[in-house]
Amino acid sequence: MATPAIADDEQAEERSPWSSVLFGSLEAGPTKGFVSAGMKTALWSGLSSSGFRTMLKIGGAQEQARRQRPRGIAYKSEAQALIGYEWRIGDTFLSLYAGSDYEGEQREEPRGTVTTGSYGARLHGDLWMTPSEGTMLQASAYASTLDGRLWGRVAAGWLLPQAFRLASFQSDGAHIGPEFEAYRSHDYHKLRFGLHLTGLRLFGLTWRLSGGIQKTSDRPADAYATLGLHWQS
């Protein structure tokens, strides 16, 4: 998935026609842990110009198998293979992808273990822009035929003030601001509101930290935290 600091990286130098971005994320909440990794590749043109893209992503989660007691444990895996096009205009890019969506699940319940797998189609979009000097706006969304899933995230940010920059990180291009996230399926929904710090650089990677409050259809409000990173080749 695209992240804000990519734009700065791409303007610094021309990339090869097959340049790629590797990305990953780690998410933690009271009842669920999720980890993912993926790769976005530019086809026949570098990431600094408009062109076709492929995006491959895999992920895994551990969560409660049931929303009522006894809850049990569920292990889930997912994979997407998408192809699309990205439009680049200065510091702004807009991308749209379509492709396959898969989810596997193993539930450990009192009556035994149940294993299932589902295939579907996914439509995915990303937007990154700088409305004015020192600001950023990022949005991502997808729609999947698996369980009628819809997801979206919007984040705004302002350049991190010099007085708050972290000595342990290269943070000259870091932005801080609010984020809002929403998810819905046939029988479940989730809303999140929090703060993000995007664009920290350490060990050759670009990092995003975020956290806040979430409310789901089956639990009272509680906290969440997310760690994201990417590396461009």
Considering the chains and any ligands shown, give keywords for the structure:
single chain; mainly beta; 3% helix; globular
Secondary structure layout plus pairing:
Layout: H1 6-12, E1 20-28, E2 32-43, E3 51-64, E4 73-89, E5 92-109, E6 112-129, E7 135-144, E8 149-159, E9 175-185, E10 188-202, E11 205-216, E12 219-232
Antiparallel strand pairs: 1-2, 1-12, 2-3, 3-4, 4-5, 5-6, 6-7, 7-8, 8-9, 9-10, 10-11, 11-12
InterPro entries: CBP_BcsS
Protein name: Cellulose biosynthesis protein BcsS
Pfam families: CBP_BcsS
Mean pLDDT, to the nearest integer, reads 86
- Bulk shape: globular
How is the biggest beta sheet arranged?
12 strands, antiparallel, barrel
Q: How many distinct beta strands?
A: 12
> What CATH first level would be assigned?
Mainly Beta
**Helix tally?**
1
From the 3D structure, determine the CATH topology. Answer: Porin
User: Regarding quaternary structure, how should these chains be classified?
Assistant: single chain
Helix content: under 10%
Using the CA coordinates, give the radius of gyration: 18 Å
Pfam families: CBP_BcsS (PF17036)
Organism: Bosea vaviloviae
Protein name: Cellulose biosynthesis protein BcsS
InterPro entries: CBP_BcsS (IPR031485)
